[in-house]
Each structure stands twice: as structure tokens, then as C-alpha cells.
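INFO batch 0412 | record 1 of 1 | parsing
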Amino acid sequence: MEPSRIPLCVLCIGLWMLVACSDEAAGDVANPVVVPPPAMPAPQAAPATDSLPQPSTADEPTAVPTADPTDGVPTDGAAGGPAEPPQMPASDEPDAFEPSEPEPGDDEPDEPPVEPEPEPVAGCETTAGDERVDATIVVGPGETFDGQCRRYIAGPAVGDGSQSEGQDPVFRLEDGARLLNVVLGAPAADGIHTYGDVTLSNITWEDIGEDALTIKDPGTVELDGGAAYDGSDKVFQINAASTFRVSNFRADNAGKFIRQNGGTGFTVHVFIDSCDISNMDEAIFRTDSNSSSVTMSNTRYSNIGDDGDELWYDVNPANITESDNTQY
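INFO prediction complete | emitting C-alpha cells
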């Protein structure tokens, strides 16, 4: 095409478009259309991620993280690095089952309270009241009687505490019985009788009466703690083959501390330890049996027998054992 004809062609085209637009309805405004020259298409580039439409996050759940296959690190689906680990909703539940400790008293079986074993008190220097005994108190097999330092006084039906035979005891102890923390006042009748293996702790005779204690049946009798005063004859009487152990005991003013029943040949073993014995008219132990024995240790004594130190009466010398005793 010749260069001189280019403007004329452009003018013709404009006039033609003006005529065509005049046919439009009145009031419409026609804009001239400029047709640009054709351009060569540019190479298509990868769309930027920032230009892509992004889903609205309002009222929608958070996207589930995806994994990047190149490095195995989870991402949030957009370029720029690893995604934050998913946050689980807070919960009051424990991660794993752990049995909880029951609250005290929850679903626990009720157990009966365990009564503590009574123990001897440190002497009954004062009493916790008086009780009159009108019939012998029997402590049965395996039972424990704790007097709690009360004073027990024999009524007329039990005995008057004289030397007349046939009086009843204030206490009778059966095999396996225990007697604790008792004061026997005056009158004490015939004191305490034992039948079998028995234990006595912290027993005080304010007035011995006929006898403080009599062993009636064979067994082992143990007396720990207490005192006995003012007896016309024996403190302790042994009427059956037995073992008698007395410790931590005070005895004063009687005829004999221990007497085996006169004229009997059964065997008695006597053990005296850590006692204080004074003012006995005859001896500490008297027996008519050649086989009976006595062992005394750690004991203080004073004014025993006519000469003050006649400890044994008719006891076989071969059956006497003494250690760490003191005369005062």
C-alpha cells in the first residue's frame, strides 16, 4: 500500500462507524471503538500464587496440613516453609488412663476400730476410786482385766482379811488370764488365786490380808511391778508344782516373801529379779522340798530373818543362785 493512501482509509473507516452508530436508539451514547493493531502473543508465565483466588477463611474450618513430597516436612499448602503442627482442642481428659487415688473414705470398707492392748501404768501411787467386791471377780481363760488403778475392797461375803482360812479371793485368774493395774485395799480377803499360766502387772496390796497371792494349780505365774505391805504371814503362797517369776516388786513387813506349802515335795522354781525386800521375819523363800530352787538377781534386801541376812529357809544350797544383790 502506498503511504499517501493510509490517512484516507482511516477516515473512511471512521465515517462508516459514525453512520452505523446513528441507527442506535436515541439517548444511547456510542463510544468509538479503537481497534489496536494485532500483537504477538507473549510467552505464558506461571501464575503467581499471590494472584490466585484465596478461599475465604471466615466460617470455614482450617485446612488440613499437607505433606511436601520433596522433603517430608508438613506444610500448610502454601509456599513458604513447614506448617505449624496441628493444635488439638483443649480437653480436661488425661492423655492416657491413669487410675486415680480414691478420696479417704470413698468406697472403703468400714473396719472395726482396733482396741489397743492395755499396758501397766508406772505405779498406782494414787487410786482412781474404790470398788467394793461382794463376789470374787473371775478373769477367764485368755481374758485381760485392767483395773486402771482402782482400789478393790473385799466385802463381808468375801472375807475380812484376817488369818482365818477359807476366805475367798478378790480375783480368780484362769489359765491364760492377765491382770493389770489393780490396787487391793483393806480388807483384801485372800487376795488373788491363780489357776495355770497367768500374767500380772502393777499389782499393789495395801494390806496383804491372809495371803497376797496363792498359786493353786500348776503353771507359770509372772508378776512384774507393784508392791505388798503388812502381812502377818506370807506374801506369796505356792500350793502346786510351778514356776514363779517376780520382778520390779517392793515388799515390806511380813513373815516370809515366798512360801511353798509346808510338808510338800513337789518342785517349784522361783526367780526374783530387781526387787526390794525388807523386814521379813523368817526368810525370802522357805520350802520343805529338796528339789525346789531359787534364783535371785539385782535385788536389794534389808532385815531378813533373825540375823538380818537369813535369805533362805530349808532350801537345798545346791539349788540357790545369787547375783548382783545388795544388802542395805
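INFO post-check: The longest helix spans residues 6-21.
INFO record closed
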